[in-house]
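Tokens for chain A. Residues wanted.
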């Protein structure tokens, strides 16, 4: 009999082990930490980090007649707006691409012409139009208190804006 009980016990143990690996309820694994949600830039974040510094650098480069740097900053500001339009096509229900086009296309094209002609007077006038376009756009989206101006001095002490001759 002892032998029979031992066999029955071994058989029961084997059954329990096999049952444990075939779908009987198992304890839940410990919870895994969830990945943090990615930070999504707001319109203000994009304007402050992508556009405003490029606007300032464009003005500083043109003001010192550093036409190569001004050309580069013009490309950069256009690329910034293209990225913003893709990232946030609507702001406060308004189409960002259309707002940018209406407020900035003509001044940006005039800056392009001024840079190509290396004409300081045309650059200053076009840059002023660009700055006014920025402020008109801000007013259109109910942010008239965000006022952009022509930089009076460089906010970039670690960059030389004078042209290389």
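Reply:
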């Amino acid at each position: 009999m002892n032998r029979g009980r031992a066999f029955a016990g071994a058989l029961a143990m084997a059954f329990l082990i096999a049952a444990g690996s075939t779908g009987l309820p198992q304890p839940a694994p410990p919870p895994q930490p969830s990945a943090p949600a990615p930070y999504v830039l707001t319109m203000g974040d994009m304007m402050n980090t992508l556009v405003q510094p490029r606007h300032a650098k464009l003005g500083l480069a043109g003001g010192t007649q550093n036409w190569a740097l001004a050309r580069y900053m013009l490309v950069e500001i256009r690329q910034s707006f293209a990225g913003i339009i893709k990232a946030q096509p609507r702001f406060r229900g308004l189409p960002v691409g259309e707002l940018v086009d209406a407020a900035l296309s003509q001044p940006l094209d005039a800056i392009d012409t001024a840079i190509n002609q290396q004409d300081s007077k045309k650059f200053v006038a076009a840059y002023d139009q660009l700055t006014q376009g920025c402020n008109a756009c801000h007013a259109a989206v109910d942010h008239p208190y965000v006022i952009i101006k022509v930089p009076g001095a460089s906010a970039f002490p670690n960059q030389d804006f004078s042209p290389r001759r």
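Residues 43-140 form a domain with the Four Helix Bundle (Hemerythrin (Met), subunit A) fold (CATH 1.20.120). The beta strands are 90-91, 94-95.
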